[in-house]
Amino acid sequence: MFIEYALGAFIIGGLLGFIRDYKASVKASSFMALIGSLALLGEVYNVYTNGPQRIDLYGIPLHITNLSSVFLLIIGIVGTAASLYAISYMDIFEKTGKGWVYAIAYNTFLASMALVVTVNSMEYFVMGWELMTLSSFILVFFSEKARDVDASVKYYITMHFLDTIPLFLALGTAYSLVGSFENLSFDNIATALASAPAHTKIVFGGLLLIAFMTKAGIVPFQFWVAETYRAAPTSVSAVMAGAMEKLALYGLIALVWNLVGTSYYLGIAIALLGAITLTVGTLYALRETNAKRLLAYHSVGQMGYIWLGIGIGMALIPKGGALGAIGALGAFAGLFHALNHAIFKSSLFLSAGAVEYRTGTVDLNELGGLGKQMKWTALAALFASLAIAGVPPFNGFISKWLIYVAGYQSKDFLLAFGAVLAAFISAATLASFVKFYGTQFGGEMKRYEEVREVPGTMLVGQWILAGLTLVIGIFPGTVTGILNVFNAPIEDGVYRIGFDSVLFSPVLFIVLVAVLAFGLYLSFRPEFGKEAKPWDCGATALNEDEYRVDAEGYYIKYEEKIGSFYRFGDWFYSVGRAIIHYITRAYLWIASYFVKVVDTPYTRIETLDDLRKGQVLNADEEVLKPLIRFLRIAYDVLPGIRLGTFVVIALIVVGAVIGILMVL
């Protein structure tokens, strides 16, 4: 029932985009997105109290399982905070005049994510996945800046080659097994795969794995993440990093693990990919000076932690017994960290967006001294920074600790090595966020003395998430019932290992509360005495802004020590970028000839009225009406992208369809 209310709210939110006034359109549609996100949380409670639900949504079969409810919880929490935040934040894009594009794309984005985790049929899963990719692509280049447009096109082409095409080929494989698009439910596919040859399972699972690794930004498919999250409006970046990339984890569990099955070697491979990814992502974040790119690299790193936990589960659960219980604990920890990461990473993006809202920049070298003017934003950023670093009593500590414990107790060298590496890299995460927080909110900067705190809706959006980092950290039992889909021995896990013995020592609890209370007092206490400038040893020409260490200088000596790692990593990134670059050029070359054939004069769409009235069809459109009409409208209502680019996208989709026909 609640899922229907949520989808209805998202549809209304999209329709509200046709309000002509930009601010009214964005605020009304963001409010409906907020209502829809809250309805998703209602569905989570419904499943938790009444069990899994089966719904026929106008012919689309939905099966809201316990696993689905975990990801609806993630989408609901992040969507609620980001939508409330966007009511004020999106004002900075008023010059684009395209509130209707945001309204339709943003609500479609949230709705498609909800569909992906609730549909019970492969074809609708792929449809929802593609809708999610298309809507997020539109949101990424919303600002229309040349660099952002470039990032969005590379993102979309990357997704189509490494995400969409593998999914379509997997869909074709499923069809060849089941024999009908009407019977492509996950249950039927699982039954067909049970008796399928081993090579068919490998092909099906491998295609899915490539698609989900790409969406999650797992090494070596992480090269698109940093620029995409930087380019998108920050409220959208929060949803992409907090919710969208988690759907790759849902696909890994629901489709690869549940349909194809798992084994020790597959689990080891997933865990090692996670260990490599958390290392690469975190170390690259350490040297980043753009706040949003830094957070994007940390998204890559934290997804590595999640895949490490899930990999431990996939490797050990089939063994059964004590090792199976440890595997269940590892998988539970991975899922727990997915929720925690969604919360603290979204909070961090919203904090960075708040700074951008008031200063116009996310360059850490240009920021400083904002802690005095933006105290509540600074405190929210501090909470989230401590959470991602795994510092107790915040939520990141619990899930990271359980991943470490599961790896240590696995009695497997590779899994234990992954856990040790993850624990070490967590220290680098803390160092990175010392820079992230200190360069923005520490020190003094004259140019920002007149900056004030952000509007209330932006603050509340930040604090919904920042508050949860502390609440879940101190009371993890509030979410363990929803998260425990693997039947993990959490009585010997969260409550003993992660809570009683570590967090819920009464003395330690009192000390932590006292420290937090004292920190709040220092942040908001009345100022007494006189302010004095730092002593500059008699130098008279020294600019006060030079008293601080900029972001580039924070860990420069450490970066020099591991320069060989960065050189290898840069080469690896350049290979990925080169592949996408040359694929794009090849398709643009093909598209140039395609455009010559179909490009005839047409009436340009300048306004929404023109769009409503439609266009006069040309002769070529009579032949290729659906495709060309879409390309025409897309070109006109989304300026800044050449027609050839959209033709490229269409050709990629056509290529995927041809691939399916070849499989069939």
UniProtKB/TrEMBL annotation:
It is a multi-pass membrane protein. GO terms for molecular function: NADH dehydrogenase (ubiquinone) activity; oxidoreductase activity. Its main location: membrane. Pfam families: Proton_antipo_M. Residues 124-426 form the NADH:quinone oxidoreductase/Mrp antiporter transmembrane domain. InterPro entries: ComplexI-like_HydComp, NADH_UbQ_OxRdtase, ND/Mrp_TM. The chain crosses the membrane at residues 6-22, 29-48, 68-87, 99-118, 124-143, 155-178, 202-226, 238-257, 263-286, 295-316, 322-339, 376-394, 414-438, 459-483, 503-524, 641-663. It is found in: Cell membrane. One of its GO terms (biological process) is ATP synthesis coupled electron transport. GO terms for cellular component: plasma membrane. Keywords: Cell membrane, Membrane, Oxidoreductase, Transmembrane, Transmembrane helix. This is Hydrogenase. It comes from Thermococcus gorgonarius.
